[in-house]
């Protein structure tokens, strides 16, 4: 389309890693489509990002809803916008022993972390392959590299995201389109509050990464077309050791890291 504008679309763009990624794209003069649930927060963030002299479009969608990814894609199509970069950042977890946590909440998290991500990737990557250009950044996690007691479902969803990403990347390797996995460790975002995880040892110990540093690692890997990046030296070491460690041992180690802080003191 002659008058078509090009954009980076970012889900979960109003806070944490998603917001820091949006700032990096804005600084490089990408027009943006930012997506989150809260319309007021979207408007506030858009006003901040517009200071970089770019266009920012806000679309309020709740990606816990199975229809939301399709509605988002349709709205982008209806507006005649071309998404050159897709960032699937939106994701949540739930904390606690699996036998005690709420099943419906966990099914919602699977919808958000897996189903919506797969749908958006499918819908936009087809377009990208058709025009032989485009980039996708999917937020995985070092959590996906090890079984995670107290976050069994979250770790499982992130294992899916990374495996899925590598598989699709290989399928389309000769099309001019790249998929990149960003694997952060524990990061200072709103994730832990939403997961009811503030009392966990990993949070109480306070060894949390800066979301701006994580975003920078992901942005640079995306722009270079890399398949994946593990953010942070300690996380790189953890993943490297984990690759040589049996899963049941990793699970026991992760249990000690993620258990409630008061239990760790017993």
UniProtKB/TrEMBL annotation:
InterPro entries, alphabetized: NAD(P)-bd_dom_sf, SDR_fam
Signal peptide: none
Name of this chain's protein: SDR family NAD(P)-dependent oxidoreductase
UniProt keyword list: Oxidoreductase
CDD domains the record matches: SDR_c
GO MF annotation terms: oxidoreductase activity
GO cellular component: membrane
Protein family membership: Belongs to the short-chain dehydrogenases/reductases (SDR) family.
A matching Pfam family: adh_short
Top-level division of the source organism's lineage: Bacteria
């Amino acid at each position: 389309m002659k008058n078509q504008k090009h954009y980076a679309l970012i889900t979960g763009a109003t806070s944490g890693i998603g917001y820091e990624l949006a700032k990096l794209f804005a600084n490089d003069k990408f027009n943006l489509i930012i997506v989150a649930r809260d319309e007021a927060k979207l408007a506030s963030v858009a006003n901040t990002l517009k200071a970089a002299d770019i266009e920012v479009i806000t679309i309020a969608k709740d990606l816990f809803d199975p229809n939301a990814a399709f509605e988002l894609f349709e709205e982008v199509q209806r507006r005649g916008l071309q998404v050159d970069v897709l960032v699937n950042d939106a994701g949540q977890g739930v904390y606690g022993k699996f036998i005690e946590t709420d099943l419906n909440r966990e099914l919602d998290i699977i919808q958000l972390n897996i189903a919506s991500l797969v749908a958006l990737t499918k819908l936009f990557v087809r377009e990208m392959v058709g025009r032989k250009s485009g980039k996708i950044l999917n937020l995985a996690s070092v959590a996906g590299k090890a079984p995670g007691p107290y976050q069994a479902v979250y770790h499982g969803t992130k294992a899916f995201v990374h495996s899925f990403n590598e598989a699709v990347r290989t399928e389309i390797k000769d099309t001019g389109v790249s998929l990149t996995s960003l694997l952060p460790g524990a990061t200072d975002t709103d994730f832990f509050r939403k997961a009811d995880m503030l009392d966990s040892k990993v949070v109480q110990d306070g060894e949390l990464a800066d979301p701006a540093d994580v975003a920078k690692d992901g942005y640079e890997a995306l722009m270079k077309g890399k398949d994946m990046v593990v953010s942070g030296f300690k996380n790189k070491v953890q993943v490297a050791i984990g690759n040589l460690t049996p899963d049941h041992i990793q699970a026991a180690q992760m249990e000690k890291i993620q258990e409630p802080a008061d239990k760790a003191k017993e």
